[in-house]
Every structure is written in C-alpha cells, then in structure tokens.
Amino acid sequence: MKKKLVTGILCTAMAASLAACGSSSSSSTASSEAATTAATETAAAAETTADTAATEAAAADGKTYKVGVCQLVQHEALDAATQGFEDALKDALGDSVTIDVQNAQGDSTTCATIVNGFVSNEYDLILANATPALQAAVSATTDIPILGTSITDYGTALNMSDFSGTTGINVSGTSDLAPLDQQEDMILELVPDVKNVGILYCSAEPNSKFQAEKIEGYLDEDGVAYTEYTFSDSNDLQSVVTSAAASSDAIYIPTDNTAASNMTVISNVTEPAKIPIICGEENMCKSGGLATLSISYYDLGTETGKMAVDILTNGADVSTMEVQYAKATTKEYNKAYADAIGFTMPEGYTAIPD
Fold it and tell me: Under DSSP, is residue 114 helix (H, G, I), strand (E, B) or coil?
C-alpha cells in the first residue's frame, strides 16, 4: 500500500511538472516579477534590520554622540525642522546622543560663533538649520559631518555651479524647495487678471534670490510683468512693503527667513491694501499671507535626523549622500487673511489650522 501511495505521489508531481513546463510565458513573467518583488522586499528588510542592529550595537557598547544644532532664527518653520531632527535622533539613539541646540537670533556672525564652539568641542555631527548657518559650518570645519535643513538650493548656498545632488565634501541634508513652477501657477490661478507681481525678499539671503529668479522666468513665459522689492533687513522692510503694495496686484514671497520672522509687519501693510500674498511655505502664510504650496518642515527635519543616524551609527559617507527633498505638497490658505481682504478661494485649497 505504501508503494502505491509513493507511486501516486510521484505521478502527481510529474504531472504538475509537465503542466508547469507547458504554461504560458505570462505565467513565467508573473513568477519572475513575484520573485523580483520578493527579493526587493527581502533586501529592504535586511537593510532595515542591519541599520537597527548597528544602532542597537552602538547603544549596547555604551558609545555616545554629541550633535550640535545651529538654527539661524526662531520661527515656526525652522523650529519644526529642528524638532523633527531631534525626535528622529532620540527615537533611534535615546540617551546615547546629546543634542546641543543653539539659536543665532538671525545673525550670521553668531552662527559662526556657535559652530566654532561645536568644532572646538569636537562634536560628532553638526546640523545647520538655514543657509547662513550652513555657510558658517562649512567655513568652520572640513572634517565633521554637516547636515543642512531648510536649505532651498545647495548649489547656491555652497557656491557650487556644478551641484548635481551630492556635494563631494562633508555636507549633505534636506531641501525645503517646493516646486516653483507650481507656485507660479498658483499666482495665476488665484489672480487670473494679474498685471504686475511684486516679488519681495531679503537681499542678504541668496536662496531667496534663487527662488525669485526662477519665479521670474516662469512669469516671463506667461507674459506677466513683475517687480523685485528687496530689503536688507527688518529695519527697511515696512517702507519696501508699502512700495510693493502700492504697485502690485499680487505679492510673492519665497522661503525667506527674514520675511518669515516679520510677516506681521508685512500683513499690517498688505491687508488694508487687500493684496493677495502667495508665500513659499505654510508658517509664513499662517502668519500673514493668503496662500501657499506647503511642505512639512517637521518631516524635513525627521528625514535629516535619519540621515544623521546613518552617519553616526553606520559610518555613512556624508559627501556621497544625496540631498533629499520634500515628498509631498499641499495647497493651503489662511482663512483669516482671505476674509480680511474679501477673497473667495477656489476649490482645492485647505484652510491652515489655527
């Protein structure tokens, strides 16, 4: 009886084998794709496991890390990026990492003092939050890994004409650049009869100038006139905004740190004049603009924190790490500002929560 059972099993197996040999190429392709997917998932899981093991091993060995954070100025977007960075490091490394957060209060000279202190104390990694902080860190050290966040364009910030995603030096990080062509589309969508766009930014911020020039190129393509209104610091901001409001149908403000810290000053002029303001990011809009194509600065900081963990625990080479960009954008508007200037928003925009 056992012999008959074995024979039956063998026959069944041979039949199945013959059936498989005679199956269609689509079945073979499906099997191959399934195998490839499984292999990819297995590799990703293995990489995650390896990263986790490296982190746990570092903690088990009692290894500790010192990380310095230089933030240019206090405003909601930069605060959120710093918080995301801290949370990512603490989630991965717990008490094994000490994070020293210092704020330069908008002064680039203070940025240099802060990062020189990090270098003197031999910190393991520096986070530079905003362009002047990054430039100060790069001037201070060529050895300590530097990660930037809230940097619009690394080529502009580092004066690299051939920047293509990696820096080749001890710098990488994340960019807060939202799609500028879509921001220009937003201006035309909200003010379809616009004749002149005022472009307002701080002349001391090179990344603001970079964004302004990109927006101007898109406006040129659409045949829309524009005028730049630049201010050197907060002292001459009100007079510059007054000029912009008197001559513009709409005002565009890029992700500019000085403007972000003074949106109340700006809106105190533009709101009575009923001027729509399109901002480069959510927190600027929330503080005194009409609409924005928003990214999450907290998520940006979190991604930067993950990069830091990879450098600290796995020895990742910062010079070859690709600069990362925000993965999602959202059309948002400030309801209070819209109501104040009597503006009716089209469909597709989400009100920014109070």
Answer: helix
DSSP symbols for 44-101: HHHHHHHHHHHHHHHHHTT--EEEEEEESS--HHHHHHHHHHHHHHHHHHGGGEEEEE
Which backbone phi and psi does 223 adopt, to 5 degrees? 70, 30
* Amino acid (one-letter) located at 341: I
- Per the structure block, which two tokens stand in for 233? 């610091």
180-190 vs 206-221: helix crossing angle, rounded to 10 = 60
CB 281 within 8 A of CB 176: yes
Contact status, residue 328 vs residue 167, Cβ threshold 8 Å: no
Three-state SS for 213? helix
For 45, how many CA atoms within 13 A lie in the half-sphere containing its CB?
A: 6
Report the pLDDT value the prediction gives residue 23, as an integer from 0 to 100.
34
Edge-first strand order for the sheet with 291-294 is 225-231, 196-202, 250-253, 277-279, 291-294, 330-333, 350-351
Within the chain, which residues score under 50 in pLDDT?
A: 1-51, 53-55, 57-58, 60
pTM of the model: 0.73
Structure tokens at 33: 């794709």
The predicted pLDDT at position 61 comes to 62
What tokens does 27 get? 């079945």
How does pLDDT run across 298-329, given as a tens digit for each residue?
999 999 999 999 999 999 999 999 999 988 89
List the structure tokens of 264. 């109340």
CA distances from 193 to 26, 165, 187, 253, 295 (A): 55, 38, 10, 19, 27
What CA–CA distance (Å, rounded) separates 135 from 112? Answer: 9
CA dihedral 73, 149, 90, 299 (to 10 degrees): 100
Size of the chain in residues: 354
